[in-house]
Please model this.
Amino acid sequence: MNLFEIIKNKLPLLISLFRSSSKSNLKIQSSVSEGQKPIQINELKNVKLVKTISLGKSELYPKFSENLTESTDLTPRVIILNQNNIENFQPGYVFDSNILMHFEDYEDLLKNGHKLVNKLDNKPIYVLSASKNEFQNKKCPKNTFELNRDEHFTGKKRNFENILNKLPSSLKSNIYYVNITKCQEVIDLAKILLPDLRSWGLHKADSQFLSFSKLTKSTLITCDKALINSCNRARCGVIDFACFSERILQPSPLTVRERNTRILRKVHPSIFESKNHRIRKSHYRRGGLN
Model:
């Protein structure tokens, strides 16, 4: 029997096997489709996307995380980092105290915080314990007039924990809190930087922000002109928050306030304490106005 006759005799059997195999595969695919609900694009609308950054060992800060759900929850939150592990911190952005105070004073900043962060690189945002110290014994502006006058504030006491808790949802990003009180590396470098940059307006509290930023190769975000100059002299990355927020929000509430202050000064110059105003305004930009 030649090859052609062999194939001809076996052909019906091969066709039968192929048909039964096709039916079996069809049944399997059908059962999978029936057992799984297809994902619709509109079901992904409510999924929260959070910037995930690995910083090594860390833990949730209990005081700022009372209402947190499971650790697998991706909701932005405040996380405390071990200050003794600073050499492993990734370069990021360091908020000066005046940035937190501005978020406390201007509701528009809180509403648009995510727009600001979206213009930054995907890096961690650090808040230092030095800011908590600068919040003590200071008050918010009592009303719009007091805010525009930009002098001695007499409103409610500033609340560091409250504004820190609001930042993650505003920025839609985790906030990494670092207690630098006993971080010897930060303290030592600050002592070296302070004498050299004092003539540029650097003071003790700001030297800690500059020190931490240099050690972690981070960018400092501030409204303090003296601190900006000191960062430039120390070759540390820095962002002028007033200019940065204006470029994105157009107008920034800081720009609006400065414009209103100029108008108020022109119309009612007598309500300003000229010498003390300049001193206090400079001090406020460092996060120190009461």
Remarks:
- The chain has one domain: 74-284.
- The beta strands are 58-60, 78-81, 93-95, 125-128, 175-178, 219-222, 238-240.
- The chain has 13 helices and seven strands.
